[in-house]
UniProtKB/TrEMBL annotation:
Homodimer. Belongs to the peptidase M20 family. Binds 2 Zn(2+) ions per subunit. PANTHER family: ALLANTOATE DEIMINASE-RELATED (PTHR32494). Keywords: Hydrolase, Manganese, Metal-binding, Zinc. The lineage of its organism: Bacteria, Pseudomonadati, Pseudomonadota, Gammaproteobacteria, Oceanospirillales. This is Allantoate amidohydrolase. One of its GO terms (molecular function) is metal ion binding. It comes from Marinomonas hwangdonensis.
Amino acid sequence: MNGGLGIDSLKIDYNKLAQLVMNRCDELGKISQSDTCLDRRYLTKEHQQANGLVGGWMQDAGMQTWQDEAGNLWGRWQAANPEAPRFIMGSHLDTVPNGGKYDGMLGVITPVTLIAAMNQAGIRLPFHLDVVGFGDEEGTRFSSTLLGSRALTGQWPASWADVKDSDGISLSQALKYFGSDFASIPNAAIATDNLLGYLELHIEQGPVLENLDLPVGVVSAIAGAKRFEFNITGMAGHAGTVPMNLRQDALCASSEMILAVEKVAQNHGIVATVGRIQNRPNGVNVISGNTGFSLDIRSEFDDKRDIALDEILLELEAIAARRNVRIERKATHAANAVHCDAKLQSVLRNAIETQNIPVHTLFSGAGHDAMAIADICPVAMLFVRCDKGISHHPAEAIDTPDVAVTLAVLSQTLQSLA
């Protein structure tokens, strides 16, 4: 590994380059299917426009470009040897409704902009550097996340062809309108015999780096999550006539359960969230007869999460028995944690140290495309500080000086991999 930035990389003005990245994020952030907010979904005309804009920047950087069968945008900075191995960087170009302009997009625009500068500075790498802009990570349109990156790993079940969006358009139909074909999706899977690894740059989407006053951090793992829906059935009754000791109040039981979730999560050092609650009959003068609530529980360590989950389930059953209500649960999601490659983490840490910045390692509580790509090659992630940890919101913001640091770290990382 190199001990510091090469002479050629000193020709790069990272501050100037960072401003270009910010300007490009602004420009890409204007492509939206809504006039009032940023909303760009998979296989729409706005998706096509985004691919066209970013593809133009790739070509300006001296990259070869193409679009795969799943609608993912690719750009390649070709190595001198056509048979050289490949290293992939990338993130997603879709957004949530009313989203921000850095989530995903920063991880595509930044490496493309850096490649142009490295090319101009005469820097060359002994591997093909591919940058991919995934068409779908958020799952907003078809309610199934990571569609873009899963296509690369060959994990598109045939049943997805009939999945429909809110307008009744199936995934198969949407692909046809986009100029592709569901039957050709297997062709988007990539060969792994010459694949060195995958690096994803992403805003943190949390407040840790900001609280530590650090511009970047190395991701150790992406948390594994499980989700459930709970239904609590009691007995509705008149608010004025049923004595307190004779009530089967589903809402009160649920309230105690939700507090138990919080307490167990704190005791085990994991995160657990009840984000949705429904109450029936929901009348001001009626005792609750039925309450439903969700549970999202996550940790970077699956065993730690599952131990806490077992305790939560026991606590909820005990509360239900004590309050004489019935509890039912349904599992709705399960994903194992993904741990980032130790060697790639080490290269990132060394690159950060060359910038005289303290190295902090943290795990990601949010899911990312790297989770899917981990099935086929080593993966790593670099987080960038974001204002107040806000994401999936128009207030999502990053600082230009942090982007300059990020560019320098990525430049050092790529040259060290060489």
